[in-house]
Amino acid sequence: MKEILEILEHDARATPEEIAKMLGRTPKSVMLDIKKLEKEGVILKYKTIINREISKEDRNDVRALIEVKLTPQKNVGFDHLAERIYQFPEVTSCYLMSGTYDLLVVVEGKNIHTVSGFVSEKLSPMDGVRGTVTHFILKKYKEDGDILKQPERSKRPAISL
Questions:
Q1: CB 16 within 8 Å of CB 34
Q2: Which of 7, 43, 45, 70 could form a cystine bridge with 102, CB 3.0-4.6 A?
Q3: How many CB atoms lie under 10 A from the CB of residue 115?
Q4: What does the chain look like in DSSP terms, one character per residue?
Q5: CB 54 within 8 A of CB 99
Q6: Other C-beta atoms within 10 Å of 102: how many?
């Protein structure tokens, strides 16, 4: 099943027939394994990566990475606070980190004001939150291993000496 996961992680559109051909198995056995992985929660969902800079869709959400320093709570550590934070609809990802801060929280909003409002009104005042540092994403070059825009080739002729 590891091979199936690797294939789907690279290309979620791969069909059971294509995967079966790659692995030398029957499409039915691949489909049964995929259904089992979905039922067990190993496969949570299938995802499309959209390059919003070149899409025709008029949606320019602002995304920010927020470093959060916490005071861990007795008997539950960071988990209870992380759960409270990731329940907010503005939070798209939440990670426990090593280093100078405890959580990395990815937040999305309609504009810079909605994101800053989330930080100042919901996140920072929470008990256990000692501090935040917000980094706004200005441009994406690569996401989840995929390059979003191919570099443009120079139209100038090469000069050789």
A1: yes
A2: 70
A3: 21
A4: -HHHHHHHHH-TT--HHHHHHHHT--HHHHHHHHHHHHHTTSS--------TTTSS-----EEEEEEEEE-PBTTTBTHHHHHHHHTSTTEEEEEE-SSS-SEEEEEEESSHHHHHHHIIIIITTSTTEEEEEEEE----SEETTEESSPPPPP-SPP---
A5: no
A6: 23
Burial class (CB in 10 A: 0-12, 13-18, 19+), 141: exposed
User: Which pLDDT value is given to residue 73?
Assistant: 84
Count CB atoms within 10 A of the CB of residue 41. Answer: 7
CA distance 20 to 27: 5
Six token digits for residue 40:
């067990």
Average pLDDT across each block of 10 residues of the chain; the chain has 161 residues. List them in order.
Answer: 90 93 94 94 85 66 95 89 96 96 96 96 96 94 80 65 65
pTM of the model: 0.73
CA angle 46, 51, 55 (to 5 degrees): 115
Phi, psi dihedral angles at 77 (to 5 degrees): 60, -135
Residues linked to residue 134 through DSSP beta bridges, in sequence order = 66
**Could you tell me which of 152, 143, 161 has the C-alpha nearest to residue 63?**
143
CB 81 within 8 A of CB 73: yes
